[in-house]
C-alpha cells in the first residue's frame, strides 16, 4: 500500500519534477498500452446481459475463460444474470434501501477498487499534468488569443460535450467507446508532446506560426476523449 501511495504521489508531482515536454511524453505511454490491451479483450459480458444480448455475453465469456471451462462459464453467466436482475429490482427501491446497499461491505469493496483504478487511470493518462501546464502551454504557443479565455473555453467545451454525450454513451458498446475516446486521447497527447518540442525551436515557430495552434487543438482532442468516456 505504501508503494502504491508513493507511486501516486510521484505521478502527481511529475509535472513539477520534469519539463512539460518530458512529462506529457511519458503519460502517452499508458493510453497506448491500454489501447493495445483493449484490442485483445472482448466486450464486457455484463454489458451484453444488460442489453439483453445473452448469446454475445456467453461468446465473450468463452473468449475470456476458454472453451475448456464451460462449467466456469455457465456459473459466471448465471451469477452475472442474477446480479443484473437484482440491479433492476434495486432501481425501484427506496432511497433508504439504496443508501443501505451503498454502505454494505459487499458494495464498498469492489466499488473502492474501481474508484482507485479510475483515479489512477486519470492520473496516468495525463489529465492532471495537462491541468498543471494548461495556461503555460497556451502562453508558450503565442497564439493570437487570450490564453486564459481560451482555457475557459476549452474547459466549458469539455463540460458541455460531456452533458450531451452522457445519455448516448451508456447505450454503446464499452469497447467501441474506449477505442474512439482512446484514439482521441493518444492523438492529443502525441501531438501535444511533439508540439512542445517544436515550439522550443524559435525558428520553427517564427517561420510556421500555425505550429502554435497545435497545443490548443491537442487539448481539444484530449478533452474530447474525456467527454466521450475515457477512464
Structural commentary:
The chain has 231 residues and is mostly helical. The protein is built from 14 helices and no strands. The chain is elongated, with a radius of gyration of 21 Å.
Mean pLDDT score, rounded? 75
Q: State the end-to-end distance.
A: 22 Å
Helix fraction by DSSP (H/I, runs of at least 4): over 70%
Topology as a string of helices (H) and strands (E)? HHHHHHHHHHHHHH
Largest sheet: none
Which runs of at least 5 residues are low in confidence (pLDDT < 50)?
4-9
What percentage of amino acids are in beta strands?
A: under 5%
Which SSEs are present, and which pair or pack?
Layout: H1 2-12, H2 14-17, H3 20-27, H4 29-38, H5 45-50, H6 54-65, H7 70-91, H8 95-102, H9 105-124, H10 127-141, H11 147-169, H12 174-199, H13 202-207, H14 214-227
Helix pairs in contact: 3-12, 4-12, 6-7, 10-11, 10-14, 11-14, 12-14
Summary tags:
14 helices; 231 residues; mainly alpha; single chain
Q: What does this entry show, briefly?
A:
With 231 residues, the protein is mainly α. It is built from 14 helices and no strands. It is elongated.
Amino acid at each position: 500500500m505504501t508503494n502504491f501511495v508513493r507511486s501516486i504521489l510521484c505521478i502527481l508531482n511529475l509535472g513539477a519534477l520534469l519539463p512539460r515536454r518530458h512529462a506529457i511524453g511519458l503519460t502517452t505511454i499508458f493510453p497506448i498500452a491500454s489501447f493495445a490491451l483493449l484490442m485483445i479483450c472482448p466486450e464486457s459480458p455484463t454489458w451484453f446481459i444488460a442489453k439483453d444480448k445473452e448469446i454475445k455475453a456467453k461468446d465473450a465469456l468463452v473468449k475470456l475463460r476458454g472453451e475448456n471451462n464451460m462449467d466456469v462459464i455457465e456459473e459466471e453467466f448465471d451469477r452475472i444474470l442474477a446480479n443484473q436482475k437484482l440491479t433492476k429490482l434495486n432501481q425501484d427501491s427506496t432511497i433508504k434501501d439504496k443508501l443501505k446497499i451503498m454502505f454494505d461491505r459487499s458494495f464498498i469493496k469492489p466499488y473502492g477498487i474501481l474508484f482507485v483504478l479510475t483515479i489512477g487511470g486519470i492520473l496516468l493518462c495525463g489529465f492532471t499534468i495537462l491541468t498543471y501546464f494548461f495556461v503555460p502551454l497556451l502562453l508558450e504557443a503565442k497564439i493570437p488569443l487570450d490564453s486564459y479565455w481560451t482555457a475557459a473555453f476549452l474547459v466549458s467545451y469539455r463540460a458541455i460535450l460531456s452533458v450531451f454525450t452522457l445519455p448516448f454513451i451508456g447505450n454503446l458498446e464499452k469497447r467501441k467507446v474506449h477505442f474512439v475516446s482512446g484514439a482521441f486521447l493518444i492523438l492529443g497527447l502525441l501531438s501535444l508532446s511533439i508540439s512542445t518540442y517544436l515550439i522550443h525551436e524559435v525558428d520553427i515557430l517564427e517561420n510556421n506560426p500555425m505550429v502554435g495552434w497545435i497545443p490548443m487543438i491537442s487539448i481539444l482532442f484530449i478533452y474530447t476523449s474525456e467527454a466521450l468516456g475515457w477512464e
